[in-house]
Protein: RlpA-like protein double-psi beta-barrel domain-containing protein
Organism: Penicillium cataractarum
Amino acid sequence: MSSENENNAPVTEVAQDSWGSMPKRKPVPTATAAMESEEAASGQTSLTNDKPAASSTKKTWLPSTWLPAGGLGLWFASQKRSRKFLIIGIGAGILLIALIIGLAVGLTVGKKYANPGLSELPLLINTKVDTDFSRHPNLPLPTANGGPYEGDLTYYNPALGSCGYTNTDSDMICAVSHILYDAASTGSNPNANPLCGLKIRLRRNGESVDVKIVDRCVGCAVTDLDVTEAVFKKVADLDQGRVSVEWSWLETPPVSVS
């Protein structure tokens, strides 16, 4: 046994010497290793954060309108509302203008009839005479001022008469015989004849009409009367042309009929 121990001893020493000659590495403390791992992790994170983040909600722009694709529906909705409000505004404006015009016309017409001007009033001197006397069916002929007289009744188209009045076919007027007209004259001015404006009543077939003297009839006999178509139609047909008639003065005449 002693010899075996002696033989093994040098081997053990050589092994110990070879391991002892190699440099030994110091053990890394646990805390230092943890710090290094954290620094490495933080370095990777910083590198990652340095890169620009990709946008998760990238907008797409339409080239024709430069509107975001996501807001296209909202844009069309707003345009539709704008058109609707525009149409409503135009309609309201038209109605307002029509109302203003209607009120203006109504006020003008009302003012015209409420306060007629002097130009709208009938003039009775040296102008067209308002001689539209009402038709009096079958009124008797008065006798207080002379009459009744009987003569021929004809009609003519009046214009500017001897009394200075301008009349039409629709006026209730007459022309007396030139014999009566000249007999009543008091001067050279025919417009100043006293017969001008006097009223007489003529009667035929149960109808009577009051007329005013405004003219002188050259072709009439003393008791003949020349009237307008409107007067003639009240007592006869125009086709008859000439008929007999009775008449009387409604006012005191300046001349007597013999």
